[in-house]
Amino acid sequence: MATRSGKSSSSSNRRNNRSSNRSSNRANERSAFSWGDSGALVGAAIAGAAIAVAANLGRKAAMQGMSAMAGDWDEVLAAEHDATLLVFDKLLATDETQTFKRTMLVKKLTHALDKHAHEEEHVVYPALREANEAHDADLLEAEHGYVKTFLYDLNEMDKASTDFLPKVREFRTMIESHARMEEEQVFPRFKQALTEAQNARITSLVNKEGFKMA
Ligand SMILES: [Fe+2]
Ligand SMILES: [Fe+2]
Questions:
Q1: Global pTM?
Q2: pLDDT of residue 187
Q3: 69 alpha carbon to ligand 1 midpoint, in Å?
């Protein structure tokens, strides 16, 4: 399933690359045979836009490809937990003079956690509720609300503040215990009750939602 979606992404990427090459050739033809430069400029702009679209699709495919290679939905999500904890560790290794690095790492953390929450909130937690695991799904989703509160605080906070690292540390502890509950209790119990087809379907949907947010 993951391999199939990877192939279709890369083939659509190839299609886009081909179309950008065609646009680029057309731009060259116009610049060679037209009297003014405006045609060439328009052609170049179209080619540029096509290249930008292709580059964006390529970036998304590469990002989601890395997750999709991790295997089943629970392995994809566990790999994202690990990657997120590494960003926390990088943040904790900064000092108050590295405000730019802190800003960039907080942005990276925000993007990673937004994508991860999107996958869980649009696929895994609804599936949990349908399998009579609403109590855990509601508890985990409520914790995602506090994840957003921590992200809001860190994004708004003065990056040179002495409160910055204690806030990051508190946030990391919360994320670690949330991830542990998912990886060690909720997800294995849920996965055990799934048929192979249901498991494959959830993996496919998690990859699809992740691709939207990559
Ligand atoms: Fe979660
Ligand atoms: Fe998670």
A1: 0.72
A2: 98
A3: 20
Task: Using a CB cutoff of 5 Å, list residues around ligand 2, an ion.
Answer: 182
Ligand 2 centroid – CA 112 distance (Å):
11
124 C-alpha vs ligand 1 centroid, how far in Å?
A: 9
Q: Can you give the chain as a three-state secondary structure string? A: CHHHHHHHHHHHHHHHHHHHHHHHHHHHHHHHHCCCCHHHHHHHHHHHHHHHHHHHHHHHHHHHHHHHCCCCHHHHHHHHHHHHHHHHHHHHCCCCCCHHHHHHHHHHHHHHHHHHHHHHHHHHHHHHHHCCCHHHHHHHHHHHHHHHHHHHHHHHCCCCCCCHHHHHHHHHHHHHHHHHHHHHHHHHHHHHCCCHHHHHHHHHHHHHHHHHHC
pLDDT digits (tens, 9 = 90+) for 55-67: 666 655 555 555 5
- Spacing, Cα 47 to ligand 1 middle (Å): 41
**Cα 164 to ligand 2 centroid, rounded to whole Å:** 24
**CA 115 / ligand 1 centre spacing (Å):** 11
